[in-house]
Amino acid sequence: MVMKATGIVRRIDDLGRVVIPKEIRRTMRIREGDPLEIYTDKDGGVIFRKYSLMGALADFAGQLCETLNRTCGRVTVICDRDSCIAVAGVPRRELMDRPVSQELERLMSGRQVYQHKPGEPILPLCAGQDRPALSTAAPILSGGDVLGCVIFVGREQDLDGTEVEYKLAQSIAAFLGRHMEN
């Protein structure tokens, strides 16, 4: 692991807290309330890494994506709040671990199931990329928190999802949310 020096120095307060600078939180997409894993290295360094509850389900999420892809014939993605953790229907390297778009972040925060309608703006899945675009997206909610999203994506000409896709995305998202509560 290569660490990059930032030139920023912070002191630990009397309660053992340290403030992570805003620039680093913004760059690393760390939001208030996000869990962080703490590691130490053999050289005495302390490493904070964003923790993803959904990341622990990557293999299971991959199997769900494969099943949804076979059922609907759609490219299927499951993401955590930051990046794509499971993909089926396209080569994994195209989407795997890519950061999600701000539009998708807003949809997840809104906690509503989304389905593209003709005439609406096209919403990208990944940051900095126009394609693929969102067809249907259902946020994964657990204990009142948004953990990620179940998504069907497509090209501009085939974004109009079906009621079956809507219900499948909603059902799988609810299942994953309940699974994470246990």
UniProtKB/TrEMBL annotation:
PROSITE patterns: SPOVT_ABRB
Chain coiled-coil ranges: none
Gene Ontology MF terms in the entry: DNA binding
Domain SpoVT-AbrB residues, every copy: 7-53
Keywords linked to the UniProt accession: DNA-binding
Pfam families to which the protein is assigned, alphabetical: MazE_antitoxin (PF04014), SpoVT_C (PF15714)
Origin: domain of life: Bacteria
SUPFAM superfamilies: AbrB/MazE/MraZ-like
SMART domains per record: SpoVT_AbrB
Protein name per its UniProtKB record: AbrB/MazE/SpoVT family DNA-binding domain-containing protein
